[in-house]
Design goal:
Length: 410
């Protein structure tokens, strides 16, 4: 009887193959798009990380589900095996080099996987950027070469040797699926081509006055004003099917005079204070907050509640433990708009060496290059071991942190 791969292995085989074809087709278009392709970059990165995860699942399945016996010994068997090893290396190497290249880029664009899950940057030195970028492009070509060898081998068996090998990767010996599943690879490649916004010269033709980087927004403005024009121009229709391309989000520098304060109830009373030294790195497009990155570092030795006795206690281990943990940081990738001008960011607060999820809410006011930001966060101090001693028993469990500052677009 004909042995077959498990259904899980078969589904993963064809899903990964099709997604890889999509990736290569989109990847080749990315560089020429630059900032216009922001949402396409996000998609390429999201699908790439999906491939990485599916490949992990596939490798695990490979160890748990029995595979059909090898058909050939000798050099042909060895070649088939090495091509398979190479294909696995391609499935892992392509996403990992992609991830490495975005993690080491000079301008760090945050990645939100399918607009939902922030992808952390790999802790790699900037010096590997060039290598990662070159390998990422090269590995795609190696993958294509291996794919051709792999298909040639499969066809040799299936057709020349007449052993129906390809059915080992087809559910239920279905003749229809024998054609449909390999065709998915072509379809995925074609879909990748189709969703790429029209190349820059075409865009320039529909929006003559625009320079390359601004072509997309201006195009969209024209589309909105003159919808029938979009229906006529094929280049514009292709673009309308994708998300609106957005440039990378702008960076902001915090202006002097800002304030981060905190307040906590204490036995019917309130103790309030502030930090005099802190910095913030903010990259955010208020109209597209999902791509924001916010990093705030607070010098914990700069805390004061305006009372010499209590200020003397804050640095100690019962409260901030500044000797071991002089800085606290808040990091968030991605924010959500909750109402006009109001936002929320779910990030991570690291305080006293302990990292926990933390939400901040803030409002933005003003327009143009200078904006005012003010907001709040509720910090559950016990999570971070702040106030873990005898003098803290009357302190309320939640500390209100407030901030207000002005930021200027860089
Ligand atoms: C999983 C399979 C993947 C494949 C097959 C793939 C394939 C490609 C290809 C063929 C290119 C064009 C390279 C060139 O023109 O030199 C490209 C570009 C790119 N890929 Fe991927 N990619 C994958 C995953 C990823 C992932 C996971 C990320 C990031 C998290 C990523 C980020 C990028 C970036 C940023 C570019 C533009 C490169 C540049 O500006 O030089 N890719 N990809
Ligand atoms: C038309 C395209 C394709 C056909 C007809 C095809 C066919 C097959 C067949 C018949 C097998 C089983 C070989 C055996 O039983 O010894 C197989 C295994 C495999 N294929 Fe494909 N394949 C195609 C595309 C791809 C692509 C694009 C990849 C890229 C990742 C890929 C990766 C693999 C791997 C890694 C295995 C080994 C599975 C294992 O034993 O762990 N294939 N393929």
């Amino acid at each position: 009887m004909m042995q077959r791969y498990s259904l899980t292995a078969i589904i993963l085989h064809w899903a990964i193959a099709a997604l890889l074809a999509f990736q290569i087709s989109v990847g080749w278009a990315l560089e020429s798009l630059g900032a216009r392709g922001f949402s396409l970059y996000q998609l390429h990165k999201s699908v790439g990380i999906t491939i990485l995860l599916l490949t992990f699942v596939r490798i695990v399945v490979r160890f748990y589900k029995p595979r059909p016996a090898k058909l050939e010994r000798g050099w042909q068997g060895a070649l088939a095996l090495w091509v398979h090893v190479g294909l696995y290396a391609f499935m892992l190497g392509a996403p990992l080099t992609g991830w490495a290249l975005v993690s080491t880029a000079k301008v760090k664009v945050p990645t939100l996987i399918f607009g939902l899950i922030p992808l952390p940057h790999l802790p790699l030195p900037a010096s590997v950027h060039g290598l990662a970028e070159n390998s990422h492009g090269l590995i795609a070509w190696l993958g294509i070469a291996l794919f051709l060898l792999h298909v040639a081998g499969a066809l040799r068996h299936h057709v020349l040797m007449g052993d129906g090998l390809i059915y080992r990767m087809i559910p239920g010996r279905s003749r229809v699926l024998l054609f449909v599943l390999p065709a998915l690879i072509l379809v995925a490649f074609a879909v990748g081509r189709m969703i790429v916004p029209a190349a820059a010269p075409d865009a320039a033709a529909t929006a003559p006055a625009a320079d390359e980087d601004e072509a997309a927004p201006i195009d969209n403005a024209t589309n909105a004003a003159v919808p029938e024009q979009a229906a006529n121009a094929t280049t514009n229709t292709a673009e309308a099917e994708t998300e609106t391309p957005v440039g990378p989000p702008p960076a902001w520098s915090v202006q002097p005079g800002g304030k981060i304060g905190f307040a906590v109830g204490n036995d019917g009373d309130t103790i309030s204070g502030s930090f005099s030294r802190w910095t913030a790195d903010i990259v955010m497009d208020p109209d597209h907050p999902d791509s924001a990155t916010i990093t705030v570092s607070i010098d914990m030795t700069s805390a004061s509640v305006g009372d010499a006795y209590k200020d003397g206690m804050l640095p100690g281990d019962e409260f901030f433990g500044v000797a071991a943990h002089p800085t606290a940081t808040f990091k968030a990738t991605g924010a959500q708009q909750t109402a006009p001008g109001r936002y929320r960011a779910d990030g991570t607060l690291t305080l006293k060496g302990i990292s926990k999820p933390q939400r901040i809410s803030f409002t933005l006011s003003g327009t143009g290059k200078t904006r005012s930001i003010s907001g709040t966060a509720r910090v559950t101090r016990a999570l971070f071991g702040v106030g873990n001693g005898d003098s803290s028993t009357s302190l309320a469990p939640s500390v209100a942190v407030t901030f207000a500052f002005k930021a200027k677009q860089k």
